[in-house]
Amino acid sequence: MSGVSEALSKLSFNSSSSGSSSSNDVSLSASSTDNRASEIRDVWAYNLDEEFYTIRSLVRRYNYIAMDTEFPGVVTQPIIQLGITFFDEHGNKPEHVSTWQFNFKFSLSKDRFAQDSIDLLVKSGIKFRRHEVEGIEPYEFAQLLMSSGLVLLDEVKWLTFHSGYDFGYLLEMLTGQNLPVAETDFFETLKLYFPCIYDVKYLMKSCGSLRGGLQEVAGQLQIERVGLQHQAGSDSLLTGETFFKIRKVFFQDKLDDAKFCGFLYGLGASYGTYGDQTFEVDASAHHIAQMLSRSPLVVYSKPGPKTS
């Protein structure tokens, strides 16, 4: 029996013995998965203010926020989608809508992109014509995010999967500036806006046989996807549910923040600082800053899909 199967078997046995089911047991039948599609709310320019009004009312109770982004394979360009899903500390989600999928302004005729990434996003249901006409302006999103209660607060916990680029984009939007190149400056800025981050890919280092991208890991943990892969809302929802399943199965619902809070997986190998901690991370701030450079002379392609 594999390490994952053994851990899940123990969890199932313990739940059966106690006669109760976990509040964050997220393995679902196909029909219930279809019914849950309404959990994901699309946000465009026309309903941006209205949806942020709702979001502000949720974050105090549902302070664990799973996040994912989609962008066009060329990281000199802004993101196409950003998804966030709300959970409380036990993994419960708000009734009805738990996930907001923000659709940003993007033009296939004006903006740079990698064709293979665009083809993948089209297959995933991204409607680029609508993004061009109805998409959200990044600076308007940033202004609302700043006043939303989602950033700058210690009690808000961000859940991600392989998220160096995701936070690089968010920091550029929030600050209106290029990312700092110095490691200490990057992590100080990250710590300021996002005081607590759990990267699921980093957690997996302590989970024995868990391997692969988000979709593969969710499959190993018997978690059903809601919505379409490579759409930011669906990916953020799956990221959050995967985090809580990993926390329960491998960590008995307790994480040591000194070991896991603020550690990012992803882009190379270097040392960085997060608050007053010094630790090894898998993402070089210098590398992230270079890859997100706005110089028109340099176009970089993002590494392969993190949700493969």
Automatic annotation (TrEMBL):
| Protein name as catalogued | poly(A)-specific ribonuclease
Q: Where is this region: Disordered?
A: 1-30
Q: Which UniProt keywords apply?
A: Cytoplasm, Exonuclease, Hydrolase, Metal-binding, Nuclease, Nucleus, RNA-binding, Transcription, Transcription regulation
* Reactions this protein catalyses: Exonucleolytic cleavage of poly(A) to 5'-AMP
* Domain of life assignment: Eukaryota
Q: Which residues form the signal peptide?
A: none
GO (cellular component) term, any one: CCR4-NOT complex
- Cell compartments where the protein resides: Cytoplasm; Nucleus
Q: What is its main location?
A: cytoplasm
Family, per the entry? Belongs to the CAF1 family.
Q: Would the keyword Nuclease be found if you checked this record's keyword annotation?
A: yes
Tell whether Coiled coil is among the UniProt keywords.
no
Q: What is its EC number?
A: 3.1.13.4
Q: Show the GO MF annotations.
A: metal ion binding; poly(A)-specific ribonuclease activity; RNA binding
What's the source species for this entry? Rhipicephalus microplus (Cattle tick)
